[in-house]
Structures are given as structure tokens and as C-alpha cells.
Recover the amino acids of this structure.
């Protein structure tokens, strides 16, 4: 009898559900909208899961009763006190098999690390860092951003850039080409009116402006370059906190990098690597080369105590890549 597994990546912008068999063959990939309970509530989490799972099951020509194990990576599931409500939201699927739900950072770790353990660093709209060892002992930061002193997502990068544009105008800091770039981005011709617009709420600049900072840095602007280096060092500090919690300092292990900010390349990644190397020289930085939902399927296999081989990992990644290429936009 063939065994089938379901994995879900419930994100702040989209939700993926993947169904695969025991060999790693991909049978269905469904997508829907955001499911982070902090923005859409637990009812929204259920709705996103249900829509994506329905699509994946239809593609696989399976019913939910044929699933042998399931794993869920859930954005916004940051603290143990949120687990009961998260599991309640997942029950909408009607699964009657072993399941596990974790913060979505961890399914990225499972998907990208050679043996499914190590540290994962996220830098997308926001930032996060989690890790676990061979025994699934977990280390983490809060994932709650600037309020807890955890910086270096694209939102924080843009926030810092606006501050330094203000510093130029007040002569608190050096001149920067970020000022003209931001004025052009916001279609403003006067810096005073732009700053007034940003502080009054007439204008808004968010994480979507982050590529602008990388563009200005590439043109040689020292202030833009320093902001990106600052972000890399901040991400390194998050990783080092988790490394200390897990006592990884003397080990060789993977640090999986997830999120669109890492598309900025070495200008961000080099200071991150240098920072981690100060504490854990055996750390290996790895970019995730597949969708994180692969890790959720592997987590589902673990719940059913299905042996996960390197061949299963490789086939899942390769098949999902082909599926994603066929279905651009998923």
C-alpha cells in the first residue's frame, strides 16, 4: 500500500500545501492566500489551509483519509501558548493521523539542511531565527521584530534608510544618494515635504522599497552600503543567539538562509557569515533552493515514523522544482 503525506507552509502572504508519496514523488501543490493568525485570525488560517489543501488533493486525486502523516509550518506561531489554537485551526482539514505544527522557520530548516537540523535565518519582510539539534531541542528568538530588538527584515531596512535620509537633512549624518532615490520613488520633489508626508501619514514607504537600497549601494553610496552591512550583522546576532542556546559553537552544521532579502547577495551575506564565524567557525551557510513546504512534508513523514532518506529529500526537491516551473506564480 502506498503512503501519502501532506505538508503545509502557512505564510503571511501565501499558503502552500504539498502532497507527496513515500518515495518523494510530488502529487499535488495547492496555493491560497495568507494564513498568519496575527493578520487574518485563526479563522483566516483555517480558510487558507482548507483552500490550498482542497486544490492539492484534487490534483493528487486523493482524499484526506488517505493521508498517513502531516506537517505544518505556521507563520505567527511563535510561542507555546499559541499551539492549542493553531491545532484547532488545522482541524478543519479533518485529518485523523499524526500531525505536528511548528513555526514556519523550522520547515525551511528541514527543507534546506543536509540532515534536517541546524539553524535557519529568515530575512524577508521581517526576520526570524530558529534552530534545533539532533534531538529536536529548539533554540529561537521571539520573531517579533523591532519590539524585541530583532532587526534586519526588509521592513526594518527601509525604516533605517528613511532615518538616515532624515539625518542628512538635519546634518546629523552624511549625505546619501538614498535621499534622491527615495524622493523619486515617492514622486516627491522637496525633501521637507517628503519628510512631512512620511511623518503625517500622507506618504507611506514599506518593505517593497528595499531593492532600492541595494540599487543605491551598488552605485557606490557609502550610507546604503553600511545599512546593508548593518542588516547582515544583525542577522548574524540572531543566529549567534540560537547557536548559544543549542551549544553549537564547536560543531559543523548548516545555517539555512530563507527569504527574499538574501537575493541581495554577498553585500548582505558576507557580514552575516563573518559574524557567525566569530562564534561558530564550523557553520556552513546554505541558501534554500526549494519551497519551504518541502520541509513540511518531511515533518509529516517524521510524524508517521517513515524513514527519510537522502533519495527522498532529493526527489522531493527536484519534483517540486519542476512543478513550480510548470505553475508559475505558485
Amino acid at each position: 500500500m502506498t503512503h501519502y503525506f501532506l505538508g503545509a507552509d502557512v505564510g503571511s502572504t501565501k499558503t502552500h500545501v504539498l502532497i507527496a508519496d513515500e518515495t518523494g514523488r510530488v502529487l499535488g501543490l495547492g496555493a491560497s492566500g495568507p494564513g498568519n493568525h496575527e493578520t487574518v485570525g485563526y479563522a483566516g488560517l483555517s480558510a487558507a489551509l482548507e483552500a490550498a489543501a482542497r486544490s492539492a488533493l484534487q490534483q493528487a486525486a486523493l482524499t484526506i483519509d488517505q493521508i498517513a502523516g502531516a506537517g505544518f509550518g505556521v507563520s505567527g506561531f511563535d510561542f507555546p501558548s499559541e499551539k492549542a489554537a493553531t491545532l484547532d485551526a488545522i482541524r478543519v482539514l479533518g485529518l485523523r493521523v499524526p500531525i505536528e505544527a511548528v513555526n514556519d522557520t523550522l520547515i525551511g530548516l528541514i527543507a534546506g539542511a543536509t540532515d534536517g537540523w541546524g539553524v535557519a535565518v529568515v530575512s524577508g519582510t521581517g526576520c526570524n531565527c530558529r534552530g534545533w539539534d539532533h534531538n529536536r531541542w529548539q533554540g529561537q528568538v521571539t520573531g517579533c521584530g523591532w519590539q524585541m530588538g530583532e532587526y534586519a527584515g526588509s521592513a526594518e531596512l527601509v525604516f533605517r534608510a528613511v532615518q538616515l535620509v532624515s539625518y542628512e537633512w538635519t546634518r546629523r549624518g552624511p549625505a546619501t544618494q538614498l535621499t534622491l532615490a527615495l524622493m523619486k520613488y515617492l514622486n516627491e520633489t522637496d525633501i521637507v515635504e517628503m519628510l512631512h508626508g512620511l511623518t503625517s501619514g500622507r506618504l507611506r514607504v514599506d518593505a517593497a522599497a528595499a531593492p532600492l537600497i541595494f540599487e543605491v549601494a551598488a552605485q557606490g553610496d557609502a550610507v546604503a552600503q553600511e545599512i546593508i552591512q548593518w542588516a547582515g550583522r544583525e542577522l548574524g546576532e540572531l543566529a549567534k543567539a540560537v547557536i548559544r542556546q543549542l551549544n553549537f559553537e564547536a560543531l559543523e552544521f548548516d545555517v539555512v538562509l530563507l527569504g527574499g532579502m538574501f537575493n541581495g547577495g554577498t553585500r548582505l551575506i558576507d557580514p552575516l557569515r563573518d559574524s557567525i564565524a566569530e562564534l561558530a567557525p564550523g557553520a556552513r551557510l546554505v541558501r534554500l533552493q526549494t519551497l519551504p513546504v518541502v520541509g513540511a512534508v518531511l515533518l509529516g513523514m517524521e510524524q508517521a515514523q517513515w524513514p527519510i532518506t537522502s533519495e527522498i529529500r532529493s526527489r522531493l526537491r527536484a519534483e517540486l522544482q519542476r512543478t513550480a516551473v510548470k505553475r508559475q506564480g505558485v
